């Protein structure tokens, strides 16, 4: 049964996975997620991003990449607040995180302004900057919106939050549209040649920017959904099996309730089948078409078949195992014959005990019933079952068979055979 | 098992033995069934003084009632029979009236069997056992003897066979020839009395051999046995 296995956790190197934080974030929750993951104060991470922003916008690029790739998660609040408050920025801000936020926003704006001021594309390039910024802000808004939609599937947001989200989404789209339009207008007047091309690129970029996060999220959601579906399929398979065999058998048992022998036979057969199915080794099908190739398997198989056919329980104990060879196959046939005999004539005394043991090169099988027993010498000569099928067969193949029977005390057949190869 | 039927009922009737039993199983139907089967105190001498459906309950009930024998299911909510055994270890070790455990399980998977025996249960029988055999087993456990089902004997043989070439200092844990023989006969479905007859020894000797096996099983190399049991996740 594929039960939940916590053991596999050690197999995967990243025990702590990086998530973007949905709690207490400003933009995408990247900084807070990273801070929680690395165990650093959020402010440091944010400062680092701002600092990197000054390095030709690397910060923004990194942030965007993180935003797209890292899935949104819960938590990330791990960064303790005291640390946040005792940053070298000053101690006055104890207990007043709001002012910290304002300060950070101002810092951000300053950084952006410095960034924009630093950019020097050339003569006419100034006019590209503002449309680009406009587009950037719009895209950020829309991407956050995507996160919120995702988050809404976990927690039910309040009504005013929902309208806020709508407003945000619209604002984002509007900003991007505006930015692109300005871009077009400015550009259009500048040059005639590449206008059409630029327009196409601009529109495509716009769409990609707007749809990007959704596509990424969608693929993430899809893979999640796939694992869920696999799990559901497995469950369905279990249900189907239980339905086919177990419920079916239970119905049969109800119908045959007044025939204890039949009920017992059905129940035993079902129990065995269910066990086989539950504990079958990984990767093996549940069909039992192929021939057994090991001794233990063969003994169990024969016992199961005899049990099904004659309705007498057989208790099988196997110690050790070895591959089947020709001589052992003969021994198995003899053992099977002994089981059939035991089930037929000794079954009333209770379960038939089958014991097989591989010890070194010797394979020993004993079949024992607690039936009435019989006297071998008094069996008529024309009854060949025991003499030929069991004793004769063993001797022909170089083994030996002993038969012990006490009238009233059951019968035991012992079969011993040497394996062909050590 | 006509032979054992005789032993069980006559023993209970002639010697007027009494035993107090607690039933631990998470299936109410099963507890009811066992109650009906063996709990007729005037006939069998078994008095069911308590029942429990999970580990916590079991520990509480066992501590409160101090039965002589606990019939313990292997699969229980809250940690399984092994957990009950672990938490009742002091009761098992008590010098006066120790509580003895007989595992009674539908599972005859090797790891379950070896697990509870290593936990200190004095015997292991499967739920296919007949009522009279169960009563017999309860009395035997009460007296401090061990009860093995054939299947368990097979597992033990197998376990010790696979650790057959141990370093010298583990000699203590290995089964003697005689113990091996006794186990083999149990695995072949012989009753203790029949084994005694077959080997020309007394029933008491058979029982002491089985107890020795139990003791060795608890002592023997934990790693080897656990690894063996989990490596073959077969029934």
For the structure shown, list the relevant keywords.
heterodimer; A: 422 residues; alpha/beta; five-stranded mixed β-sheet; two-stranded parallel ribbon; 12 helices; rod-shaped; B: 235 residues; globular
Question: If you had to describe this structure to a student in words, what would you say it looks like?
Answer:
- The complex is a heterodimer of chains A (422) and B (235).
- Mean pLDDT of chain A is 72; it is low at 1-14, 76-97 and 283-288.
- In chain A, strands 3-4-5-7-6 form a five-stranded mixed sheet. Chain A has a two-stranded parallel sheet with strand order 1-2.
- Helices cover 59% and strands 10% of the residues of chain A.
- Chain A has helices at residues 30-38, 42-54, 58-69, 81-85, 97-118, 126-152, 159-190, 195-255, 260-279, 295-310, 326-346, 385-396, and strands spanning 20-21, 72-73, 314-319, 352-359, 362-369, 400-406, 410-418.
- With 422 residues, chain A is α/β, with parallel strands linked by helices.
- Chain B is 57% helix and 12% strand.
- Chain B has helices at residues 2-15, 28-38, 41-44, 55-65, 80-87, 89-93, 110-119, 131-142, 150-162, 177-187, 192-199, 203-219, 222-231; strands spanning 19-24, 46-52, 69-72, 100-105, 123-126, 147-148.
- In chain B, helix 7 (110-119) runs antiparallel to helix 13 (222-231), helix 9 packs across helix 10 and helix 10 (177-187) packs across helix 12.
- The two termini of chain B are 24 Å apart.
- The chains are: A alpha/beta (422), B alpha/beta (235).
- Chains A and B meet through strand 3 and strand 4 of A and helix 9 of B.
State the major sheet of chain B.
Answer: 6 strands, parallel
Tally of separate helices of chain B? 13
Percent in helix of chain A: 55-70%
| Sequence of secondary-structure elements of chain A | EHHHEHHHHHHHEHEEHEE
Query: What is the radius of gyration of chain A?
Result: 39 Å
